[in-house]
Specification:
Length: about 270
């Protein structure tokens, strides 16, 4: 808290520590105020919503949601809490505007001992009886952002969320433009009624149609990829679906034979015509 206090212009962290430890405050109200502040500060024409997750390593077993589970902090299974975050980003910066704690199978049940454990950790009954998936947690946060009138161009997420058909269907029903990563074996609908996996569509793309495009600067300098776009079956309300295929310009991934090859990633896009 010393660093936070210094940034806030306080002489010591006492006021902030008192706020966290003893003051009575409403988490949902504070979340909404933070969202309002962030959006007002970072609002821009290129603003996006980004869903992602992170973890907090824990030693004990009492904290709500804590369990042995995969966490991106270390890239392996750890005793940790995992939460899904919704960030607001633009050319002016980015910051978290919403969060939902993930409570996995270890926190879902109906026995008396389980009930007492959840009560002790202040886990709501709805979350104590059944697992709420990470894509569903992301959906709830996007729904809150829409209800609050948050302006954005696209919703962005990785494969975990892009692979959820229920989340994609909800976004399309609510006319939310999105760009989400999908696995190579994702089955996609074509305009002629057929379906094909993303990797099968990639195999049909002539190399002459690949274009080198910039993906902005990264930590190690400019990032450029070869990209191609494949039209898919249309979405509700006259919207479009396309598959964006991105290939690295240099070999950077080993295949099953141990050979270096160019990594290929797939992104399903839902947007206006």
């Amino acid at each position: 808290m010393w660093q936070v206090a210094e940034a806030a212009g306080h002489a010591s962290p006492d006021r902030l520590q008192d706020f966290l430890a003893r003051a009575a405050w409403d988490a949902a109200e504070l979340r909404d105020r933070v969202r309002e502040f962030v959006v007002d500060s970072l609002r821009a024409e290129d603003a996006v919503l980004i869903a992602d997750e992170t973890g907090d390593i824990k030693k004990g077993v009492k904290s709500a949601g804590v369990a042995r589970q995969y966490t991106g902090v270390t890239g392996q299974v750890e005793n940790a809490q995992v939460s899904v975050h919704l960030s607001y980003g633009s050319s002016r910066g980015r910051a978290i505007i919403d969060r939902e704690l993930y409570a996995g199978q270890h926190w879902a049940g109906r026995g008396e001992e389980h009930r007492r454990r959840c009560e002790e950790a202040a886990v709501p009954e709805e979350r104590a009886r059944a697992v709420v998936t990470k894509p569903e947690l992301a959906r709830r946060m996007v729904e809150r952002a829409l209800a609050a009138g948050v302006p954005f161009t696209y919703f962005l997420a990785d494969e975990l969320y892009g692979g959820s058909r229920s989340l994609r269907a909800w976004l399309e029903d609510h006319r939310v433009p999105y760009v989400t990563a999908v696995p190579k074996n994702e089955v996609l609908p074509l305009s002629d009624g057929r379906t094909q996996e993303a990797r099968q569509l990639w195999a049909r793309v002539p190399q002459t149609l690949m274009e080198c495009r910039s993906c902005a600067d990264g930590a190690k300098g400019p990032r450029a990829y070869d990209v191609a776009v494949v039209d898919l079956a249309g979405a509700p309300a006259g919207r479009k679906r396309t598959l964006l295929i991105r290939r690295s310009t240099v070999p950077n991934k080993k295949n099953k034979k141990g050979e270096l090859v160019c990594e290929v990633a797939y992104f399903l896009c839902h947007h206006a015509p």
